[in-house]
Amino acid sequence: MGRLRTKSEYEDLRKARISGNNVPLETLGLQKSIAELGSLAAKPKLERRKWRKIDCSSTPVRQSNRLKGKPCDYAPSVTVENGGFCPGKDSDSVLDPPVNVEMEEVKANSAYEDLRAARILENKARLESLGLQKAISELRSIISSKPKSQKRKLIKIEYSSSPLRRSSRLEGKSCDYRPSVEVEDELMKKAKNGFTYQPSPDALSRRCSSKARGSVYDPVYGICCHFCRQKKLCGEEDCKHCGELDMDQLCIGKTDCSICHSSNGVLCRACLKVRYGEEMEEVRANKEWICPHCTEEKGINPYWICNSSLCLKKRKMVPTGIAIYRAREMGFKSVAHLIMDELQRRGAAHR
Question: Which residues lie closer than 8 Å to 290 by C-beta, 6 or more apart?
């Protein structure tokens, strides 16, 4: 089909298509049905409200005495007589008579309201014939008679009678960290009754089965690793702290920083090997071993940082997870060497 050049060609083509569509409709007898449907679908037009024009020419024009420079009397100029309005003697103007508005048109109900009221009456009659009107009223009375759930009263606790706790350390006073008399009495009672914590023999026999991180969890004698945070007894055979449960002896299966001696420098054998590439025997032989925290603080190697999840989050870095396989594939000894290389590259790129 070519492009239509003029508007008349388009109109001719449109009329030809309409006539072509009407022929099959007439043969099927649908033309009359379409006309009936169109008449049913046509909505009735709403009657417009007539505009009533008020003729104000019979009343004189009101003029302002104030604009003319005359003294104004602000007293009311009309009096009410026999329920109607009439002009007063001293008034210079006449009020317009009230306009009577046909209230019947405003108050007239629409067809929808009439239909709704008729349906309500029909439904009520049907309920009364079935005897359900009384049942509905009884159900409403039962629902209304249910007691409301009482709100729980708020009990306010008075703390004004008890003295406030103050920190002696913040005030610069010497602090006494000894336990109170009640705690000492409780400990003495437990000691007299023979209360001592002792792991089971089965647990102690399994202690050396795992030399890397230890296989026995102990909340009292176990020392928590800074990286894996496992509070276990070490798997070293010669450790008196974990083997003989002697609190006065040092655990030889966990590292100890020579500078800070804090929990940041406590690492188990497996974390020390995987995360930092060091052996426990070398660290134990070196009495001046320094943890990664102190190494960074002393400025010995600023890129040798602690790669635990806690410390990396403090630096706003994403924890590495199990990164030892990626580090070894890339030729690094441990995860710490991989992170040190990445930090050195970032520092060189920002220069």
Answer: 257, 258, 259, 265, 298, 300
Number of compact structural domains in the chain: 1
The owner of tokens 């003495």 is 188
Residues 6 or more apart from 86 whose CB is under 8 A from it? 78, 79, 80
- Across-strand partners of 224? 231
Residue 137 lies in a domain: no
Asked whether residue 68 is assigned to any structural domain, the reply reads no
CA dist., res. 35 & res. 300, Å (int)? 97
Torsion angle of C-alpha atoms 338, 344, 348, 350, degrees rounded to 10: 90
- Dig out the tokens for 276 from the structure: 């930092």
- Return the closest-CA partner of residue 333 out of 292, 286, 287, 272: 272
Domain of 238, in residue numbers = 201-350
Place of tokens 């190697």: 301
Instruction: Kindly write down the DSSP assignment for every residue of 122-175, as one continuous string.
Output: HHHHHHHHHT-HHHHHHHHHHHHHSPPPPPPPPPPPP-SSSPPP--TTTTTPPP
pLDDT truncated to tens, each residue of the chain (351 aa)? 556 567 788 888 888 888 888 888 778 777 777 777 767 666 666 777 777 777 766 667 777 777 777 766 655 544 444 444 444 444 444 444 444 444 454 455 578 888 888 899 988 888 888 878 777 788 888 877 767 777 778 877 776 666 666 676 667 776 555 555 565 566 556 555 555 666 777 777 777 777 777 778 888 888 999 999 988 888 888 888 888 888 888 898 899 999 999 999 999 999 999 999 999 999 999 999 999 889 888 888 888 899 999 899 998 999 998 899 999 999 999 999 999 999 988 888 876
- Tell me how far apart the alpha carbons of residues 351 and 318 are, in angstroms, rounded to a whole number: 23
Q: What is the biggest distance separating any 2 CA atoms in the chain, rounded to whole angstroms?
A: 127
262 lies in a domain?
A: yes
